[in-house]
Amino acid sequence: MNITSCVSFSFEHKFLPPVYILVFIIGLVANGWGFKSLLHNWKKLGNVNVFVLNLGLADILYLLTLPFLMVYYFKKSKWIFGDTFCKITRFCFNLNLYGSIGFLTCISVYRYLAIAHPMRVMGRITVTHSVAVSVMVWCLVSVQSLPGIFYPKTFGNTTGKCYDTTNKSRVEDYLKYSFGRTLTGFCVPFLITLGCYGHVIVILCRTNSTDKVLKQSCLKLLFILILLFSVCYVPYHVFQNLNLLVRVLSKKGICYEWFNGVYIAHQISRGLVCLNSALNPLVYLHGNEDISAQLRRLHQQARQTFSNVFFSISGHVPVVQTADED
């Protein structure tokens, strides 16, 4: 039995292009804004922002490939840019995905050390150390993602597809590779991040003298990381491996009704995982007072504009608040 009798492939053509367009626009604006403020305030910021800078670079690297994927899915999965560029595009996605996870883990470890062992790390962690760790993360992620290039992606251009994993001929081997990469590139960093912030929260709750602002900052960052992992990373890794398993079973002539559900869930998870390029700037925005102040001013201006328009339509005169009334 052929997989096409179990799975309807039309869903990805309807779902993924709008998601890619949205992520491309929001991601470029958010990361561009973050880069500008990061470079402007570089001397004021701590060593952890070296990781934030690399997080932004990973996002930009992936965002630049999205226009090509938009064309691909608008053309009903017809790849027109060649086999080599297909592999480069998929490689950039993996660099962004596992690079983001790696740098988020580094941020978590640095925050943990600064709060749990402040006297031990004070003055010992420099920008040079952060740069060296960042280079190591890029190297590890590249080595981890490099095997994916050697799997066929286009099936000799006879189908016009550009697989994000591999074509039918090597799907069994890719399932093993994907499972191993999930353990090393996602599960281990995820457990490290949970361990760091779990311990940090315990320390902050037990210490009554801890600054309330520090507590709020850590809780906000923990919430952002939980959001990123639960929305972007967890569903993708679960359903990518399940979808590969479905393809392996289908290749053997096995077909079940739930195969189509797994396929649809996998496509949704692919859309969600690319949102990390638009959500990652939250890691920077939450801790940057300049950007937070700008966002508050924009919100106040928008609210004031809305009030003026409302009162002009209703015929009432708006009451102007003074500084004392705030």
Structure description:
- The protein has 326 residues and is mostly helical.
- The protein has one domain: Rhopdopsin 7-helix transmembrane proteins (Up-down Bundle).
- The chain is built from twelve helices and no strands.
- It has helices at residues 11-40, 49-63, 66-74, 83-116, 118-121, 127-145, 171-206, 212-251, 258-274, 276-279, 281-285, 289-314.
- The relative contact order is 0.13.
- The model is unreliable at 289-295 and 317-326 (pLDDT under 50).
CATH structural fold name? Rhopdopsin 7-helix transmembrane proteins
The number of distinct structural domains comes to: 1
Shape descriptor: globular
Strand content: under 5%
Structural class: mainly alpha
Structure annotation, total helices:
12
How many strands in all? 0
The helix content, as a percent range, equals: over 70%
The gist of it:
The protein is mostly helical and 326 residues long. It has 12 helices and no strands. The chain has helices spanning 11-40, 49-63, 66-74, 83-116, 118-121, 127-145, 171-206, 212-251, 258-274, 276-279, 281-285, 289-314.
Main traits of this protein?
326 residues; Rhopdopsin 7-helix transmembrane proteins; mainly alpha; globular; 0% strand
What is this structure's SSE topology?
Blueprint: H1 11-40, H2 49-63, H3 66-74, H4 83-116, H5 118-121, H6 127-145, H7 171-206, H8 212-251, H9 258-274, H10 276-279, H11 281-285, H12 289-314
